[in-house]
Structures are given as structure tokens and as C-alpha cells.
Amino acid sequence: MGQYHSVQFIAVVLAVGLLSGTSPGQEMLRREISGSAIKELNVSIDLSFGHATLKRGTTKAIAVVEYTKPEEDDYKLDVDYSVNEEVGSLVIRSEEESSFWDRSDKEHREWIIELTDRVPLSLSFKLGAGEGELDLTGLQLHDIKISTGASAVRLTCDEPNRIRANTIDIESGVSKLTARNLCNTNFRRMRFSGGVGTYVLDYGGRLITDAEVTIEVGLGAVTVYLPEDVPTRIKHDDSWFSSFDLDHDFLKKSKGVYESAAFGFSTKRLVIAIESGLGSVKVRRR
User: Do the Cβ atoms of 68 and 21 come closer than 8 Å?
Assistant: First the structure.
């Protein structure tokens, strides 16, 4: 039988009120999920509007959440944690409906979320509007799902993931997204879907084994960066209405299929399938 913790009511609420480091007229709430005997952690983050930072924790806590808001903002942050058969479930969400035009003082909301690096994580992150800084460095990543609306999101992973990530799923709407060192996440499959925006997907880092990527872009512009030491095959679904620009060192193997010189001789390869509607795609070496 599972254990349920309502973080708003148990002693993991460390401080509420004006704390040092906040600007005048702002209030900070800090919540900490104490350590427990878990083998996995499922994290669901669903935020409406503001600036969100996610990174590896520096304490023994399973998670630490700091939320800063204007004093007059009566918005409540909902944080729940439960454990069932050694699997932790952490839910961080805002209950209000976000509106791109109704920003008011919401743009001064800020979340800083730290997650443990001691157990594998399945992470779902959703941001309606605002800015996101997602530093996945050092986390044990099992599955990742990211969904952004009218947002500017930066994602990075500066160290190889210690476990194999089954899937990475990124959906980005009317937004700007930059993802760097994606190979360090050690993913098996990755899907990126972009709407109307500007996107940068950088596959730097260490490619440990074969991996597959699907990129779909509508009206947006996506630039894919590939290190020279990553053997890659590019499959592009040609369209009269889209633009496709590929660096010269890729060899055309057949219609819509291009390979780097070392692709046929490597045991660790990246295969990328790209579909574009009215958008533009650029593939660059770095």
C-alpha cells in the first residue's frame, strides 16, 4: 500500500515568508522532500507562467522547490509526493489557466527545482509561457517528456547519463528552444515536434550506442548541430514548401538519404529522420 504525503501540510515545509535574497515586495516559499527508501522517482512538473529552473540537487533531499512571487500574488503552488512499492511520485503544478496575454505580475514568478541524482528519474516537464532553464547534468535519466507553449527554453546535459534513457519527447509550440549536448542524455529514441518557432538541437556529447531521432517541424526553423565524430545518417522527407540545407560533408546515398563518411564503419550511429512542412531545416557540423 502506498504512502501519500501532502507537502503543503507536513513538516517538509521549511520556510514561508520574506527570506534573504528576495527582492523588495517578493515572497519566497521553500519546500523540501526528505529522503526515503525509493528505487525510482517519477516527476511531473506542470507550470503556467514564469521562470523555471531545474537542476541536480546539492543535498540529500529527494527534491527541493523554491518559489518566489510578488507578495500581492495569491497564487498557490501545489506540491504532492507519494511512495508506492519503492517508487516515488512527485507532482508540482499550478492549478490556474495560463494566458499569453494576461501576464500582469505573473512574469515575476520564479521556480527553482532541484532533483536527486541518486535514483533513476522519469521526468515530465510542461511550461505554458515564460522561460525555462533545464540543466539535466548529473541526473539519472530514464524517460524525459518536455512540452512548452509560448516559452523560451534552454536545455543542456554536460555529462553522460549514467543509465540508458529510453525516450526523449519534446514538443515546442510558439516558442524558442535550444537543446545542447543531447547525446549525453544517452537516449535510445528521441522525438522532437516544433510548431511556429526557432529551434536549435545540438547533438554534442558522447554517443554511447545506436540512437534514433525523429524531427517534425511545421512553420518553424530548426538547426541541427552534429559533431564530426558522431557517425550520422540523415533521412529527409522532401517538400516543395520547405527548405533543407545540409553541410557539404554528408554523402547522398539515395533520394532523401545522406550519410557521414564514417557511418558505414561504425558500431555507434545516429539516425535522424526529418519531416518539415512549411518550415526550414539546417544541418551543420560543429
Answer: no
